[in-house]
Amino acid sequence: MVLCSWLLILAFIVITLICIATFISTLTGGLFALRFKSKIYLILGFSAGAVLGVAFFDLFPTALELSAKVYSSRLISTIAGIGFIVYLAIDRLAILLSGSAKGDGSGTLRGKVTAFFLTLHSFLDGMVIGLAFQVSVVTGGIVAAAVLVHDFADGINTSNVILKENGSNKHALIWLILNAAAPLLGAYSTFYFQLPKEKLGILLAVISGFFLYIGASDFLPESYRRNPKLLTLLMTLLGFVAIYFAIRVSGN
After folding, report:
1. Are 29 and 155 in contact (CB under 8 A)?
2. Low-confidence winner among 69-83, 170-184, 224-238 (lowest mean pLDDT)
3. What is this structure's pTM?
């Protein structure tokens, strides 16, 4: 019993340190986007590639791995497709309800909805870290490394989505802090429950569909609308390739 208590305390400390690192990484990425918002078309191009990279190389493969023993790959693909369509409906509804950006600098409803789902993704990242440590320290470390390496891009994406929807630096910073703190909250939540990994896989499949829509139907068109040049394309490719190598290097 005493040993279990000490192991729980050790896990709490390790997870906290990891989540502090993800907080710093996310915050740094977001502040980078705020600092260079005059070049937002380039950062949007990078974000498009990064979001698509996270969907293809992180979320969807992880969903398949977690659900493999219970659900078929065809079902997981279908769920990802449903996620794409659901987000399409949410996005179109948000556009209809948004009108023009509000005068208080908070941006449009569409921007807030996208920022919310980016933050939800970060919360789920934290849950994945916590649940992975329930399996083993090695598994937890590998998953944590995978989350950490793309958190810089998460910060960039969160700031970008508010800025491009005419939000102010202040409101972008608020969402950035929420996004940066979300993994810690997600990881801590796993001390109070055990979610079957196949169920988590279903959630990740849905979020991967969301990210495919955000990258392909929002960030990509917006970046080229603002500056349809070769450099924008190169930034998109850079974001895509950067996430690919980050995930590979992390061992995920």
Report:
1. yes
2. 224-238
3. 0.72
